[in-house]
Design goal:
Blueprint (H helix, E strand, L loop, with lengths): L1 E3 L17 E3 L23 E3 L21 E3 L21 E3 L21 E3 L21 E5 L20 E6 L26 E6 L20 E5 L16 E5 L9 H5 L10 E3 L7 E2 L12 E3 L9 E2 L12 E3 L24 E3 L22 E3 L20 E3 L23 E3 L16 H4 L5 E3 L19 E3 L7 H8 L9 E3 L7 E2 L13 E3 L7 E2 L12 E3 L19 E3 L10 H8 L5 E3 L5 E2 L5 H9 L4 E2 L7 E3 L19 H24 L1 H15 L2 E3 L14 E6 L5 H16 L7 E2 L12 H10 L1 E8 L1 H5 L1 H17 L4 E5 L10 H9 L3 E2 L4 H16 E3 L8
Parallel strand pairs: 1-2, 2-3, 3-4, 4-5, 5-6, 6-7, 7-8, 8-9, 9-10, 10-11, 11-12, 12-14, 13-15, 14-16, 16-17, 17-18, 18-19, 19-20, 20-21, 21-22, 22-23, 23-25, 24-26, 25-27, 27-28, 28-29, 29-31, 30-32, 34-35, 34-36, 36-37, 37-38
Antiparallel strand pairs: 33-39
Helix pairs in contact: 7-13, 9-11
């Protein structure tokens, strides 16, 4: 009932079962032509359809009309330039429509007329210059409307929103109003028609707004507004807001001339009893005065990150009057120190739970009492700071559950001698720091004594050289040892000494593990479900390495050096198996049989050097036939050998692998001597033989020289002796035509007049179809230069078809085929194969003797005119 076809390189929608309820066709190559009115015929059960990230540039008339139960339609991130008035006809039950990030400029007034139950409409990221006045009239049930990132020149919403009586969320963000001549952007009647709508969420970011163009009464109609995001220039209009429910306020400022002050926030004190989130990230703040936020006693979240007037300085009582504050963000504020005085006002409330000080310049040693006022902290982020050490101040954070110390740039910070019994509640710890390349020793990191309840541990690129440093963490659920350069000799001996009975996710990628032995994981991590062993040097996996891991669902062995996959994990539970970029040349049939009876849903063997002999056929057939397992990526399965198939997709391999050994031996013994003598003679006199055969064929087919008395009367109307049809987009073919064919035919003793198409003879401005047709008509012969590029060209196919039609109409053999280079069987069309089997052709030789006879035969063909025996049928 759920079909996942995303990222399958599809250019058309496949035939579908009629019971599908959810269909994902995102990240493909579907175009407007793919959405024909019949493609979804019979899909009356489909409820969710995802067509995002395709190449859809238009929609045919009513492509979704049969999807009467469709509730979600996602068309975002395509190339839609327009939407037909009946594009959404029949979608009476649609609830969510996503048209974001296309190229839409306007909408028909009736485009949404059938969407009577539509609740969410996303039009952001398009090219709307104005809001349609009547397009939203039918969608009475609309609750969410997103118009952000459109070059709107006006937001006088007016009657376009008159019928949106259920609208709860509105997003408008435009960068178009930056021109000084535009002065009237926001007026007091901008939101006039939303006065009766339950609008609680407004995202109003408008680059052109200034304090003089935003009237102070614009927000008055929005009596239920709860979440509001806007620019500082609308700040003067905030007092006009009569809503008593404002809980979330985000104010952005990109002008350095003005900045927030204590008085600025005092003007918002009317919402002191309701405001819970104040987001001032990217605002113009350089200093936080004492008692600045005392007007908001109910505030729970305060974001002062990434201020644009760094460094941020904090007064001793900057956070006074916030008895309920739980989350404080001071990220990327260029703070050089944080003192206990700044945090002292939290000592009585004990409300603060999360403190983010990442991406600052905190390099000094924290004092013993630095974090004493916030001992209630459960989450502390100090990443990306040049901390000198982690010392005794950790003793004060007895309630800490998550600590992030990753990417610390100091060479000395990991002096953990004072961690003993400091973090009894800690469950998540990040210590990754790839910039240092230091080695963590067991003496420095005895985590079992510091965090007995640890569940998530990230030691990525910490260069742990002794796994025993984490011994005893019996409650660990996630462990990341990425890029620690663990040597196989040490890892193997140490890994057997640890035991993680609750571990579910283990990441060991980017190390130096060379082989996986039986019991390596089922004795240490018996319940692991997610195992990542990618980017190691694994060459050998013993047969029962994963046999007892009954909870294993995800296994990643990519970017290793595996030669075989004769080892088989227990596929009864695994749903994702990734083995890309190894050295696997063959996929045994036993492996495919095991997949057929497994729970596997995602499989990746891409990037391996497959050997495409007869042994690859079972794998090829499985790729083409399987509809359950998703191969990632679909185009990454290519042949490495033999040379004739190198670079080809496995699905293109065509081989005849039946055994004819006995027949071949019997025939070979009987005629081997004859074949040997024939081959010697044929090789020695091959071009002379071909020339004699050519003369014989000319006599049998009654060829006669052009210019005789029996030539057709219209021969004088012929302008060229031959029209040359070749692959125009192939530099190699064009060079051969101009530098080899042309001189040998136009500069010989009896020259021929050639038509070489748009490379020389087409009249500029003439339509290509007309030029091709006239050139073939005005040429006595058509020389077809066959090559792999020629059979792939639609224009070449058109030229050859025109010449063939002339042969059928006029009864004259006007086609001369020259095989410039061999054409692979995969590219040879059935029509061309049958034609060449019935007609002689010239093959371009590489030796001088062969080339001499080649030109002789070609000139003879050009001088001859076939006379069809009209009396044959009489």
């Amino acid at each position: 009932m759920e079909l996942d076809c995303h990222n399958r390189n599809l250019s058309s929608i496949p035939t579908l079962e009629t019971n599908i309820t959810t269909l994902d066709l995102s990240q493909n190559k579907l175009t407007g032509q793919s959405l024909s009115t019949s493609v979804f015929t019979g899909q009356c059960e489909l409820k969710n359809l995802d067509l995002r990230f395709n190449r859809i540039n238009y929609t045919e008339s009513s492509p979704f009309i049969d999807l009467t139960k469709l509730r979600i339609l996602l068309l975002g991130f395509n190339a839609l330039c327009s939407i037909g008035s009946s594009s959404f006809a029949g979608l009476h039950d649609l609830h969510i429509l996503d048209l974001s990030y296309n190229h839409l400029q306007s909408l028909s007034s009736v485009v949404f007329s059938d969407l009577v139950k539509l609740q969410e409409l996303y039009l952001n990221g398009n090219h709307f210059g104005a809001i349609p006045s009547s397009a939203f009239a039918p969608v009475h049930s609309l609750k969410v409307l997103d118009l952000k990132e459109n070059p709107l020149t006006s937001i006088i919403l007016g009657k376009a929103f008159e019928n949106l009586t259920q609208l709860e969320s509105l997003g408008i963000y435009s960068e178009a109003l930056l021109h000084p001549q535009i002065t009237q952007n926001l007026s007091n009647d901008t939101f006039e028609y939303l006065a009766n709508a339950p609008l609680i969420d407004l995202f109003l970011l408008w680059d052109g707004i200034t304090p003089t163009t935003a009237e102070k009464g614009i927000l008055k109609p929005l009596k239920d507004l709860t979440y509001f995001a806007t620019f500082f220039e609308v700040f003067d209009a905030l007092p006009s807001l009569e809503s008593d429910h404002l809980q979330f306020l985000k104010i952005m400022m990109f002008q350095n001339e003005t900045h927030f002050t204590n008085t600025t926030f005092q003007s918002l004190s009317k919402w002191g009893s309701t405001l819970q989130t104040l987001d001032l990230r990217f605002a113009a703040i350089d200093h936080v005065d004492d008692y600045t936020y005392t007007w908001f006693p109910q505030l729970l979240h305060l974001d002062l990150g990434s201020v644009i007037l760094p460094p941020l300085t904090l007064s001793e009582h900057a956070f006074a009057g916030l008895p309920n504050l739980q989350n404080l963000i001071l990220i990327d504020d260029h703070l050089v120190q944080i003192s206990s005085q700044v945090l002292s006002d939290f000592s009585n409330t004990r409300s603060l739970r999360s403190l983010d000080l990442s991406y600052n310049s905190l390099s000094g040693r924290f004092t013993l009492d630095t974090f004493e006022p916030v001992s209630s902290l459960t989450h502390l982020n100090l990443s990306h700071n040049p901390l000198i050490n982690v010392g005794l101040w950790m003793h004060k954070l007895t309630n800490l559950t998550e600590l992030n110390l990753s990417f610390i740039t100091s060479q000395q910070y990991l002096q953990l001698a004072y961690w003993t019994d400091a973090l009894p509640q800690l469950t998540t710890l990040h210590l990754s720091y790839p910039a240092l390349k230091n080695i963590i020793t067991a003496r420095e990191l005895q985590l079992k004594l510091k965090a007995p309840n640890l569940k998530i541990l990230n030691l990525a690129e910490t260069f742990v050289n002794d796994i025993t440093v984490i011994r005893g963490l019996s409650k660990l659920k996630e462990l990341d040892l990425t890029g620690c350069f663990l040597e196989m000799s040490n890892f193997y001996s140490q890994w057997n000494t640890v035991y993680f009975p609750m571990l579910e996710t283990l990441t060991l990628s980017g190390n130096k593990i060379t082989h996986i032995t039986d019991g390596m994981f089922n004795l240490t991590t018996p319940f692991v479900a997610h195992l990542n062993l990618s980017d190691n040097s694994i060459q050998i996996i013993e047969e029962n390495a994963f046999s007892n891991l009954h909870n294993l669902k995800y296994l990643n062995l990519g970017y290793n050096q595996l030669l075989l996959i004769d080892w088989l994990p227990d596929l009864r539970q695994i749903n994702t198996l990734l083995i890309p970029k190894n050295q696997i040349a063959q996929v045994p049939k036993s492996f495919l049989d095991a997949i057929a009876n497994s729970s596997l849903r995602t499989f990746d063997l891409s990037g391996n050097p497959f050997s495409c002999g007869c042994e690859v056929l079972p794998f090829r057939d499985w790729i083409l036939a399987d509809k359950v397992v998703f191969l990632v990526p679909t185009l990454g399965y290519k042949c490495n050998s033999p040379d004739s198939f190198a670079g080809y997709s496995i699905t293109q391999v065509v081989l005849d692998c039946q055994s004819y050994l006995i027949t071949y031996l019997s025939i070979g013994i009987a005629i081997s001597f004859v074949i040997f003598v024939t081959c010697v003679v044929a090789i020695r006199f091959r071009w002379h033989i071909r020339y004699k055969l050519f003369l014989l064929c000319s006599w049998r087919r009654k060829y006669k020289p052009i210019g005789g008395d029996d030539v057709n009367a219209n021969i004088n109307e012929i302008e060229f002796d031959a029209f040359v049809s070749y692959a125009h987009d192939s530099d190699k073919d064009l060079k051969w035509v101009l530098e080899v064919l042309r001189p040998n035919l136009e500069e010989c003793v009896e020259p021929f007049n050639l038509c070489i198409g748009h490379a020389r003879d087409y009249i500029p401005g003439t339509p290509l179809l007309e030029a091709i047709t006239n050139s073939i008509k005005n040429s006595c012969k058509t020389i077809v230069i066959l090559s792999p590029q020629y059979v792939e060209s639609e224009w070449c196919y058109f030229e050859m078809q025109n010449a063939w039609l002339r042969l059928m109409d006029e009864g004259q053999d006007v086609l001369i085929f020259i095989l410039l280079e061999p054409i692979p069987d995969a590219k040879m069309t059935l029509w061309l194969r049958q034609f060449l089997c019935k007609k002689n052709y010239l093959k371009w030789p590489q030796d001088q003797a062969g080339q001499h006879l080649f030109w002789k035969m070609l000139r003879e063909k050009l001088r001859m005119q076939t006379q069809v025996d009209r009396h044959h049928d009489m």
